[in-house]
């Protein structure tokens, strides 16, 4: 039997509409159960995202955005979604409480050349091998900085190296003043800091005019500018093929640095004597030989020793889905911690831009430790800076010695500008000073 169904176009349309409505209804219901709230953030352009809205000082732009979107917000740099975290409480949540979830590092083009991708600081992989790597590097650094000094006037090897470098700084500053009338201290300070690490790692320091050493110091400047939060090459992959200075700077710097370190490590491998450990490189070789001999378990190979030493020379991603401030943050989200905002938060610091060291003292003239702990410069949690103790001791000895021995002055009519040049680290703009050896009782600027 054949049925003839007379279906009109109107009925077909109504049936289709009903089906679409049911489909949308079921889909919405399904999504409702697992609706995840994403962080707020500014509208972004296709392909470039918010990249060109960041300006020369992205940390200030983030502070402006924070006023509108709160401590946690999301933007797009190129095609990459980036989570920006501000405010001490949220930063602590990320770095201390939820630390393993935020311990990854983004796969950025600018950092990929360091130690040929095996760097501890910028390694994309966070896991057991990274933990072993960090532990070995940290032990070697601690043991060697606290090792006995050769001279009896210093309490440890680190103090001895730092004292030697700061004496050289005092000499360079006074000589440059008498020769040129004034000097820009930035290069000499970079040489002194790099020399302390060279002395610890390789048992060797360089003269401030050594060509090989100066080449690395000079390319370092370009690198710091290039490795900032706003380098398009890290966020728009096709940019990396353009012949621009900002794109090639990291490759040039890391190539020179890797070569410099590899030469020293190779030299140490050939001259290594287990009964005479000279420096950190020897200590790393020793750890590897001992560990392998006693347990036959994996330690660091020669390439990893090179990369560990590079780390001592020298943004994160989420490792799993997580939530922050009630927002859903998917795995592998690139995360920026706005440390500048924490250190300039007016709810913590009264007039934060004013240089007022006495703000850290309580009414009895003692150090206010709870306030000191609110300064965030070395990070927190498992990715915290490995060199914090070295850096703190070094800064203390550098500053006290320079101020005790020299009277520093600005040049007549020159204004000092504290606005930093933004990059991987914040550097001061070029400036000129005059230095004079203190006769007891003279005053300084
Ligand atoms: C004033 C000087 C210094 C400052 C402000 C500083 C700051 C930092 C910061 C903010 C981090 C990143 C933390 C994170 O990713 O969450 C870091 C990591 C690191 N720093 Fe420093 N640092 C300084 C000096 C040093 C020195 C002298 C060394 C070595 C001798 C060093 C070795 C490292 C290493 C190896 C890491 C990577 C740690 C990791 O990823 O687990 N730092 N530093």
From TrEMBL:
**SUPFAM superfamilies linked to this entry:** Cytochrome P450
BP GO terms, sorted: hormone biosynthetic process; progesterone metabolic process; retinol metabolic process
**Keyword Nuclease attributed:** no
Q: Which Pfam families does this UniProt record tie to the protein?
A: p450
| Cofactor entry | heme
Residues recorded as binding heme, renumbered to this chain, are 385
What is the role of this chain?
A: Cytochromes P450 are a group of heme-thiolate monooxygenases. They oxidize a variety of structurally unrelated compounds, including steroids, fatty acids, and xenobiotics.
**What is the protein's given name?**
Cytochrome P450 1A
